Amino acid sequence: EELVLQMMDDLYDGLKEEIEEAVEILLERGWTPYDILTKALVAGMTIVGADFRDGILFVPEVLLAANAMKGGMAILKPLLVETGAPRMGKMVIGTVKGDIHDIGKNLVSMMMEGAGFEVVDLGINNPVENYIDTAEKEGADIIGMSALLTTTMPYMKVVIDALKEKGLRDKYLVLVGGAPLNEEFGKAIGADAYCRDAAVAVETAKHMIA
Ligand code: B1M
């Protein structure tokens, strides 16, 4: 669809209002929120990511793109987070210490809420205590961690090791995700599962909680 290609351009150029308008138009045309999210917004951000990696785009431009993406996500959020779904369990989720990427985490939060999970979002740059203290205080079932940097993903093991030390590891389902991770890494650090994307996070949580 032509509008989707236009959205990819607009996301690339960080045009928030244009993105918001296009999201509204696709909704009117009967697109599902999930398809808009994955086929337009996430697909567009993948192109931004490739050019960022290749030194064609720089941080200020990527920030604008991220901001435009968030504008689109804000419209989709209430639609993805439909009320009335049965309560499935509670998840504490955050991006790990040293890492400020939050778009993927926000997406996981939204989709988990949409699937009926209660979500406590810790935001970015979280030390061990934030995860453990909040999970304990909130009576959570799941701890979710996100990392987008190869330099911050090892911190997930620090959190899991701290859970083990405190004798709390088995109390929680620990799910991890983020672009640089893989199945093998998830196993190596002792997580219950690596989640490739937000949909997999929802399916995994449903499957393992039930
Ligand atoms: Co950054 N950045 N960035 N960045 N950035 C990456 C990650 C990078 C791969 C770009 C590149 O070089 N190609 C690269 C990392 C390289 C590496 O580690 N090997 C990188 C770098 C280097 C950096 C800086 C160091 C750049 C600098 O300053 N020189 C810096 C680091 C700052 C820090 O964190 N300390 C930095 C900064 C930034 C911005 C601030 C400009 C911005 C972030 C804005 C924001 O998040 N609010 C940014 C962005 C936007 C990106 C890219 C382009 C896009 C990330 C994104 O939002 N993707 C990214 C390139 C890329 O990933 N291709 C890049 C869309 C999102 C929907 O996908 O986050 O993967 P993702 O989430 C998916 C899944 O991974 C999964 O589900 C999500 C949805 O399906 N998932 C989970 C994620 N978390 C999960 C948690 C779960 C489950 C599933 O828990 C249960």
TrEMBL record:
<keyword id="KW-0170">Cobalt</keyword>
<dbReference type="InterPro" id="IPR006158">
    <property type="entry name" value="Cobalamin-bd"/>
</dbReference>
<protein>
    <submittedName>
        <fullName>B12-binding domain-containing protein</fullName>
    </submittedName>
</protein>
<feature type="domain" description="B12-binding">
    <location>
        <begin position="88"/>
        <end position="210"/>
    </location>
</feature>
<dbReference type="Pfam" id="PF02607">
    <property type="entry name" value="B12-binding_2"/>
</dbReference>
<dbReference type="InterPro" id="IPR003759">
    <property type="entry name" value="Cbl-bd_cap"/>
</dbReference>
<feature type="domain" description="B12-binding N-terminal">
    <location>
        <begin position="1"/>
        <end position="88"/>
    </location>
</feature>
<keyword id="KW-0479">Metal-binding</keyword>
<dbReference type="Pfam" id="PF02310">
    <property type="entry name" value="B12-binding"/>
</dbReference>
<dbReference type="InterPro" id="IPR050554">
    <property type="entry name" value="Met_Synthase/Corrinoid"/>
</dbReference>
